[in-house]
Amino acid sequence: MTEAIGAVRGEAGPPTAAGPVGGLSAHALVDRGPLIAGAREHLAGGGSVLLTGPAGIGKSTLLSALAGEFADHQVLHCSLSETERHLPFLGLIDLLADTGDDVLDTLPKHQRAALDSALLRRTDPVGERDVLGLRMAVLATFRALCASGPVLLVVDDAQWLDAPSAELLAFMARRARGLRLHALVGLRTGPADPRPEPRLCPPPVRSFDVPPMTAAEVTRLLGDLGLPRPVLAKVHRASDGNPFFAMELGRALAEHDGPLDPAAPLPVPDSLRSLMLGRLMALSARARRTLLTACAVARPTLALLRGAGRSEAAGDIAEAREAGIVMPGEVVRFTHPLLSAVLYSEATERERLAVHTALADAVSDPVERARHLALVAPGRDAEVAATLSEAATAARRRGARAAAARLGLLAADRTTEEEDEAGLRLTAAEDALASGEFALARGIAEQVLEQASPPAERVRAWIVLLDSVGQALAELDDVFPRALADARDDPALLAPLHYRLAWRAWLVKGSAAKARDEAATAARLAAEAGDRRTEVLALTKQALVEFSTGRLEAEQTLARALAGSQDPAIRFDHNGPVYLRHRHHLLHDRLEEARAELRSLTYVVRQRGAVESLFMCLYGSSQVEIFRGRCDRALDLADQCLRLSEDSELSRGPAWCAVAFAEAAGGSLDRALAAAERAVAQSEDDGDLLFLPHALHAAGHIRLLRGDAAGAAAALRRVRRMEDEQGLAEPALRRWHGDLAEALVRIGAVDEAAELIEATRRDAVRLGRRGVLAVLERASALTAAARGDLDGAAEGLDRAVAALTASPYPLEEGRARLELGRLRVRRGDTAGARESLRAARRVFSRAKATPWMATVVAELDLLDVGVPAVADEADPLRTLAGVERRVAVLVAEGATNREIAARLFVSVKTVEAALTRTYRKLGVRSRVDIARLAAFRPPGDHPA
Q1: Considering the domain 876-936, what is its CATH architecture?
Q2: Per-residue pLDDT tens for 90-107?
């Protein structure tokens, strides 16, 4: 997760005879947070930055965004083009266009004359004897500009800078020591280019290669075009993450007539086609024919190309490598995917047919061979259909479910047995589901339902439709009656439908009791029909509901699901009992067993499972790593969840939820809250009552950590209401109870907090949830402190610290030590408070829990400077939340925003936002006003 840097203006594409090619959308957002942060820091320290990368990668956008952050500098800008590079001194003219006579009049007469000539402010040209004078004039001019403030040179497309201007800037850069002068330069580079020398930049210089966009960034860039996610994923691959190329491809797709087939080649717009063809046509005709063969096969080696009839392949590939068309290596790889796409699309039908015919004989892989056969043998053919069906099975065994879906559809198109066609299509639809291509699966199912298919195939198609909407089952509420009508009284057809009715009862209707009844019915019908696969799924669902409602028979139900051999398809499914077993471990605080279960399951699911199952394994693993206090690992896993949901058609609500919890544990609270709010909105849009409480818990937890107790209480009260309405009674399921109790205490609802703690404790004792009981001990101590029983609160926190230190939950241990430190501050025990806070800091530091570290460090800072932990009515800062108060105190000490951010372990933007809220709450306009108010805080380190 990174911060958006602003609107993408985009740099022009490579120039044509008519000038630069287009630009990117002015409304799209590009995420380049790490690069921006590094460049910003180096520029702020007085250095220069060189951005390199190919055309269209976004250098101009980044230059503009960075330059805009230095409003206190005089920014001199020049933007160049290839057609103007022969015009001498044009770059210098652009840079000094707004420099007035007041600056130039400070130069000696002969220098002023030389510079005026170069800037075309007089008619006589610069002669050879004036070159040194011109160099000294430029240096003197920039010294004069820097005397009145720092100067930032912004040079865009430096490769087109005219030679005289380049020489002058390099001369000045070598002599810029002591000047408040730095540069921000963008330079186009290719994959085989040597690392450029930053000769235009005053030292110290830091170079950044602008990276390609990720799939998620391309998805956001093209978000307004309404393209399906599989198509967006294909655009990312075809563009190789280049934003200019992605935008051009996206626009061409948006203007495409008719439905978009994710399997079909992308339409390459003329703007990109001409660019790629210009490079390809420089090759010999023989080399282009060899490359056409290479781009038609998955893994083109020289041996395979020779086997396909390209006897001179080695020489042809060497020619292409010399021209920068392909990369070095044993396998032929194009330097950009669009080169391959354009070469294939420009070939004639006859040329493509010849290539696929040759490859069908040359390749040994059955999946690859079947694909080539299908392309050279149109029409229905029983032998080809059988080959394609076998290839689809082989692809499925390998875990290549998307490829299996395509091959299965081809087999359905080629089969001569009409009664087999619907079955082949539905198998392809199920493969599409597994690969996350839900739109394709839906289209196939709807096509089958339009035909007069037998009941078994119709029910199978209805199930594909239901499974294709993920968390948004509410959208298909009318499907169930029609599917049940098709199933009639056949238990084999009714069982999988009742299993999905169990999911509907919980997801859409919010009734755990109804969900359990439907799951039990599905299990009974499946057993009657001899369908062990559906029986295991239904028993697993029944066990999950029983665990969630606090029913003791859940253990026995899970054991029934796990009994006997496991169908591999169920073993690797996130709805199966093996996945549920890790959640069972979590209920009993067995974190290492849960982690081991998920690690082994994830490994196999990556090879053979469905996209949704992989997502849920990553989601569960992220949760476990937060519990274990491995916050950096949790962030990585949550990021994988988000990328997986963006690359497929999975609902993003759960993904944003994973990101929210991980960022709250070890990242940025700003990003955490943004993710939580998106998770809530997405879950509400989907009508997903299963994940919505998770999302609300995330939002409440983050608001509590940010000091917004009222907002936290509102979100978490809603979670409690939802769980009560659903009939849930398992306190270890979501573990929100301690957060709500703390939020209630902080807003003064102490009696409500006590009632919640007591009700939760009864369930935790009945079910033996020791980890929950330890957290409740901390919450109970906070209620005692709020009622003035500081001795009782201290004893309770001591018990909580002891219990949590012995537990596997380091973040909860750190929170207990933090509260003990705060309590000791209130009691006037400065030494004890410092000891507890330092112990909490050690715990959070080991866990890399950045937001919690910031909280503890701020408490220690306040302790060191004698700031009251709890403001009384006479305190002018009493209206400020925790972070705002800490920022205000440090502002009063004279700290800069950057210094405050460093001390509190937050971003500068977080400090700025806190200051904005502080100005509003205190009714002041400046830092000086804050300092004056802070001076009137009541005396004494620790109020009673």
Answers
A1: Orthogonal Bundle (1.10)
A2: 888 888 887 877 778 788
